[in-house]
Design brief:
homodimer
Chain lengths: 162, 162
C-alpha cells in the first residue's frame, strides 16, 4: 500500500494494514477494586515504512470531556508474531508478546510490566484487539497485587473515523 | 499558564513549562561499536492539564529524510523529581528517574530497561535535557553488553519551532 502522503507499507505489516488510521468510540471499565465507569476512547495507528506501527491512545470522560487515561508505544511485527511496547502516564511500561495476527485479531500478553517509584503496581496485562471491517473492539485484562488472579478491566468498541 | 487552546498547566509542571512545544535541530551519534553518524531530530512535549508531559521524538537522515529512530512516552513530575517512561520501536522500554528539574536541566537514569524477545539488549541509559532559552540540548549515554562501562551515544541541539 502506498499513498500520496507517505511511504509504502512494509510487507511485514500486511496482517495489520486494516489497523492503520484513527478509531473512536465508547468504552466501559470495571475491576473488583473500583466502581464501574464509562469512557470515550480514541486510538490511532500510523506507520513510516518500517515493520512497526506507532500506537497512540487516549480516553476522556464522556460527559465532561476531561482527559482520563492515555498510552503510547509501538507494535512490532516480527516473524514470530507481534511485540507491543507501551508507556503510560501512570508511570508504567509494558512489553507484550503475541502470536501472528489472524483475521484482524491481535492478542498479546505482558512479559514485562514495570513502573516508576511512585507508580501503582500492575503485575500482568493481557490485551486483545479485534478488527472487523471498520469496527475495532479492544479488551484488556489486568492482574494487580489486590487481584492476583486477574480480571477483565476494559472493553471498548471503536469505529473508524473518516 | 492557560491558553485559548488547552487546559491550564498543572502547577507540578512549573519547572518544565519551557519544554512545552516543538524543537528541531541537528544531532550526532557515536558509540564504540558503530560508525559515527548524523541525524535531524524533532522533539515535542505536550500537556493535558495533568502533572505529566507527553513526549514524542523522531529522527531522520539529514540527506535522504528517511526515518531513523523514534521514541515516545511520558515525563511525570513528582515531588521527588522526575519519572520518565518511554517506548521505542526497537522493542525497548525504559523507566527513568531523576532529581527535580533546576534551571531547565533534566537529568535522569534508567531504573528499568527491558525489551521484547527480538530486541537488541540495552542495559542502562542516562539522559540529559538542557533548556536555555529556546535551545534544547539533548545528551544520551548508553550501556550495552558490548560496552559494559557505557559511553556517550547521542547529542543534539534543537531549536524551538514557531
Amino acid at each position: 500500500m502506498s499513498t500520496a502522503h507517505g511511504p509504502a507499507l512494509h510487507p511485514a505489516l500486511a496482517s495489520v494494514s486494516g489497523y492503520l488510521g484513527v478509531f473512536e468510540g465508547d468504552g466501559a471499565g470495571d475491576y473488583p477494586t473500583i466502581e464501574a465507569f464509562r469512557y470515550r476512547e480514541q486510538v490511532s495507528f500510523g506507520h513510516v515504512g518500517k515493520p512497526f506501527l506507532a500506537y497512540e491512545q487516549r480516553t476522556w470522560n464522556p460527559d465532561t470531556a476531561a482527559p482520563m487515561h492515555a498510552e503510547r508505544g509501538y507494535l512490532r511485527l516480527v516473524p514470530e508474531g507481534v511485540e507491543f511496547v507501551l508507556a503510560h502516564p501512570t508511570g508504567i511500561v509494558e512489553v507484550q508478546q503475541g502470536p501472528p495476527v489472524v483475521e484482524g485479531t491481535m492478542a498479546c500478553t505482558s512479559t514485562v510490566v514495570e513502573g516508576t517509584a511512585t507508580a501503582e503496581e500492575v503485575r500482568h496485562v493481557r490485551r486483545r484487539f479485534q478488527l472487523e471491517g471498520d469496527v475495532l473492539t479492544v479488551d484488556l485484562w489486568m492482574t494487580t497485587p489486590e487481584v492476583p488472579d486477574g480480571a477483565h478491566h476494559l472493553r471498548s468498541v471503536l469505529h473508524r473515523q473518516v
